[in-house]
Amino acid sequence: MESMNKNGIRGDHDVAKAELMRGHDHLWNIIFSYVNSMALKCAAELGVADVIYRHGQPLRLSVLLTKLSILPSRTDSFRRLMRLLVHSGLFASSTAGDDEEEAYALTPISASFLVTSKAENISPLVLAVLDPVLFDPLQCLSRWFTAADEPPAAFDLFHGKSLFELTGNNPEFNVNFNRGMADDGSFVAKLIIEQCGNDVFGGLRSLVDVGGGSGALATAIAGAFPQTKCAVFDLPHVVSLLQGNPMVAAIAGDMFEFVPPADAVILKWVLHDWNDEDCVRILRNCKKAIPPKDEGGKVIIIEMVMKLENEEDGSIHDETTETQLLFDVYIMASVPGKERSEAEWKSIFFAAGFSSYSITPILGLRSLIQLFY
To answer: From CA 253, how far away is CA 242, in angstroms rounded?
Structure first.
């Protein structure tokens, strides 16, 4: 074996060995990436961010253990959990006092999104997405790919029913799932209203939030644009949660059958649950519900628009793209739908009878699409 050539450059064998080791390490990182999710779930269940937030300054490990009722025998284990969460950027660590005991503080991420008393809190979304009901079907992806009976998603194969059937028959999961969607809806609504609210909602007399769940998005729009009469249209077991909300009307029904008439229809995280044919059916019903563009009618869609990697040079490798790809496979396991590129969206829009659209990025992961005819 020649480890160096005459110019002092590593030989091919050493280069290949180094690449092999990097590949091995990278594979290990992929294998254990799910531990990050489980550590985040644990922190959300324990309320770590809330305890630190209420303290108002970096919190010593010993005090944090007491406030969280962690068993003394678990002290070192909890320290190791926090070490991972610090590395993930969710918390910051320092030393405190003469004994240099570890102390933990919030980072901008945990301060914004994991403190349950804050409007942007998405802890319920963390717990809903990482609930075994949604997480476990990923264990049978390979079986789903070869299943002779062709169930629509791995979820159906694992549970024996679809996600929507299960939520309708499991009140506890239905509440938790819709609470998670509501918190996400509130956050997204705030961004949309601040970034492009007048352009999107200004002048609308009425708006229907199709598949609007517990009404967080519609309520936020109604609060910012009181001249707009807002309603939530969803399945009966979903809109039953809306009773008593004075800001939005609750309308029960099936979007595959009809959509209530309004100046505008909005769909947030709805179409990615369905295949192309079903999306066309839903959008055709939405088109029937609204007036044409010259009379102010529009369909507003909040979804991902996938940034696909350039197959020639692989130029896009940022975290946003990776998250979109991960989420697409997650959706594939849960429902018959998918995340779509602009070209895929365009095909669906035109098949449903719309003549034009515009796309406005609102987050790295999501965009606001307006459809007109």
So the answer is: 14
From residue 115, give the alpha-carbon distance in Å to each of 123, 344, 353: 8, 37, 44
Q: How far apart are CA 135 and CA 38, in angstroms?
A: 11
Q: Which of 55, 159, 237, 272 is catalytic?
A: 272
For the whole model, what pTM was predicted? Answer: 0.87
Q: Is 172 exposed, middle or buried (0-12, 13-18, 19+ CB in 10 A)?
A: exposed
pLDDT in tens, 165-210: 888 777 778 777 778 777 777 888 888 999 899 999 999 999 999 9
Which residues are CB-neighbours of 66 under 8 A, at least 6 positions away? none
Separation of alpha carbons 373 and 351, rounded Å: 12
Evaluate the CA torsion angle 169, 171, 177, 181 in order and state its sign.
positive
Could you confirm whether 272 is annotated as catalytic? yes
Q: Is 36 helix (H, G, I), strand (E, B) or coil?
A: helix
Check residue 97 and give left, alpha or beta (phi > 0: left; psi -120 to 50: alpha). Answer: left
